[in-house]
Design a protein that fits this description.
Elements: E1 5-12, H1 14-18, H2 25-36, E2 40-47, H3 51-63, E3 71-75, H4 86-91, E4 96-97, H5 99-110, E5 123-126, E6 129-134, H6 138-148, H7 152-159, H8 163-173, H9 208-218, H10 221-228, E7 249-251, E8 261-265, E9 280-283
Helix pairs in contact: 2-6, 5-6
Length: 284
């Protein structure tokens, strides 16, 4: 994939086309893209709810070659109002519709509000450009982008016919990735599974006063103090393996650079036995 990825953000609104200061969804979408990906170039435009103007602008962006536009996201004009014509202006240009992607966005939106049933956005591919219709509200734009953010890298690789990256991702999804470490390390001590329970104590929380009482009842204070005054050495190295003094993070080499989501953590010697998405990282 090219070093620079070109996105286009189109705000479709009669009101915003007359006063750009009224547009909050477009700038919000630009910020979301910049936060998610590095090395991006974003083209922006504001258009009225006119089918021909929307189609002409989409056609212009699809045909652009220097640089070519990888993805176009529209915001607005997807509702039931008479002048909401963004889906119609988009459909006539599509070579392939992506109904499952549109359904995925709709299902996620319906979990937020039942009013999401009143949007008609479509998704599809025109030439080598992915086109997505988002609703017009700033809140809806944020929610919809979050749904598809993780899918962008692989979707653009597929559209761009970047076969080595595509095959690698498919192999990882099928659990047949032939990339393996040349040597391994298994710690002599028991390690956890990397889930939240590994850092949660199995013992109940008790007041400090009660804890001190238990300590003083168990420990012979005078004898303990005398022993602490003597120098002593541990018979083994602690920890019993080479370890970093700081947490580290690992991500997929096939993913985009940019803001990442920490999915969890694993201890030294643990095996990663689940799929790591493009925008996810693990803490070590």
């Amino acid at each position: 994939m090219a070093d620079e990825i070109v996105f286009a953000v189109l705000t479709i609104s009669d009101t915003c086309s007359q006063d750009a200061g009224q547009d909050s969804s477009g700038p919000r979408l630009v910020k979301l893209i910049c936060d998610a990906f590095q090395n991006v170039h974003i083209i922006t435009a504001i258009l009225p709810d006119e089918r021909e103007q929307i189609s002409d602008k989409l056609r212009e962006l699809i045909a652009q070659k220097s640089p070519s536009v990888s993805a176009i996201i529209t915001t607005g004009g997807t509702g039931f109002a008479p002048r909401d014509v963004t889906p119609e202006a988009t459909k006539i240009l599509l070579d392939k519709e992506c109904p499952q992607l549109a359904q995925y966005i709709a299902q996620a939106s319906l979990q937020k509000t039942h009013f999401a049933a009143l949007t008609r956005g479509v998704c599809g591919i025109a030439g080598s450009t992915l086109i997505l219709n988002f609703p017009g509200s700033e809140k809806a734009v944020s929610e919809c982008f979050e749904v598809v953010r993780e899918l962008f890298p692989h979707a653009l690789q597929l559209i761009g016919n970047e076969l080595p990256l595509v095959r690698r991702v498919h192999a990882e999804l099928q659990g047949s990735n032939d990339i393996a470490p040349t040597s391994g390390h298994i710690c002599p001590h028991k390690t956890g599974k990397g889930d939240d329970s590994d850092r949660n104590s199995p013992f109940p929380m008790i007041p400090i006063v009660q804890a001190l009482e238990i300590i003083f009842q168990t420990v012979q204070q005078q004898r303990a103090v005398a022993q602490l005054l003597n120098d002593f050495l541990s018979p083994v190295n602690i920890p019993p393996f080479r370890a970093s003094i700081k947490d580290g993070y690992a991500m997929k080499s096939t993913g985009f650079s940019g803001t990442k989501k920490v999915l969890g953590y694993i201890a030294a010697g643990d095996e990663v036995c689940f799929y790591i998405p493009f925008l996810g990282v693990l803490r070590f």
